[in-house]
Structure formats: structure tokens, C-alpha cells
Amino acid sequence: MYATGVDIILASTLTFILAMLHAPRAQKITPEELDRAVGTDRLPTYTEQEALSYINATVKESLRWELVIPLDCPPCCAETQTT
Length: 83
Fold this sequence. Notes:
Keywords: Heme, Iron, Metal-binding, Monooxygenase, Oxidoreductase, Signal. Its cofactor is heme. 58% of the residues lie in helices and 0% in strands. It is mainly alpha-helical. It starts with a helix and ends in an 18-residue tail after the last helix. α1 packs across α3 (53-65).
């Protein structure tokens, strides 16, 4: 179980870093939004999530870039086939 969780977190983090490297404008806007909404002396809480819309969109976009779980289903038949 532990190794599976590590793979998902690593893939998400690397995708986010790649997204930030491709978008230097986002690297500038994201900390500005965080400082404006929360300040510099504490971490954000869930109650401030609506005020951090750009950060939420950035995280969702990085998750959209590369799925970290397989979504394809193996082919299967609805009925048993006999030959």
C-alpha cells in the first residue's frame, strides 16, 4: 500500500513541476494570490479555498495534464462466447 501511494504522489508532483516550468507567468501569479488571500505569516486553511481560485485551477490543470491512475478497462464480453 505504501509504495502505491508514493507513485501517485510522485507523478502528481513531477507533473506540477513540469507545468510550472512551462508557465513562468503562473509561477509569479500563484505566490501573489497566496500572499494577498492569506498573508505571509500562516498557512492557508480549507475555509480560504474560494479565495485561492488561481491556485485551485493550477493544481487541477496539472492533474489534467497527466492522469496518475489508469482509466482504461480491459476488453471483456457481456456474454460468454462458445466456439
